[in-house]
Amino acid sequence: KDRGTFEAIVAIHAHLDDDRSGNVDINETQEFLRQELHLQNDHDREETLHANDKFISVEDLWNSWTKNEARNWSSDDVIFWLEWSIGLPEYSNIFEEKRINGSHLPALATNHHSIITSILGIKDLHHRQKITLRAMDVVLFGP
Questions:
Q1: In this predicted model, what pLDDT tens digit does every residue of 22-81 receive, in sequence order?
Q2: Topology of domain 70-141, per CATH?
Q3: Where do the structural domains in the chain lie, given as residue ranges?
Q4: Is the pLDDT of residue 1 over 60?
Q5: CA–CA distance from 53 to each of 44, 47, 112 (Å)?
Q6: Looking at 18-93, which runs of residues are DSSP E strands?
Q7: Which pLDDT score is estimated for 127?
Q8: In terms of CATH architecture, what is 1-67?
Q9: Which of 7, 80, 109, 118 could form a disulfide with 136 if both were Cys (CB 3.0 to 4.6 A apart)?
């Protein structure tokens, strides 16, 4: 396991695990979808994450990430996502310069080691939040 990516997955899991039980249950997933992604009753995303598993452990989340096609996105794929899915083309050059690819998405989702502010230099709080939230969506539920 890539240590930095695994640490980011652990942080994502902790973010979702509101009751600190060590597992993310369906209610916690639904709460995340409603409160953070502003999606009501998104059964497709629930099914993607949980499938037949009511409780998601860190290991489950890691295994899900290793099968996520976004993990293998090239820098060009990430830039396309940044421009068209998030609507922040003004950061394309820095993403290209820093060679941000799909393997960096968990770090973006948690702003691990301040990647968004320190490494990418994105100062606008709203833009940082958009990148973090959309990266978490892709890490958890796929492209």
A1: 999 888 988 888 888 887 777 778 788 887 788 989 999 999 999 999 999 999 999 999
A2: DNA polymerase; domain 1 (1.10.150)
A3: 1-67, 70-141
A4: no
A5: 14, 9, 27
A6: 24-25, 55-56
A7: 95
A8: Orthogonal Bundle (1.10)
A9: 109
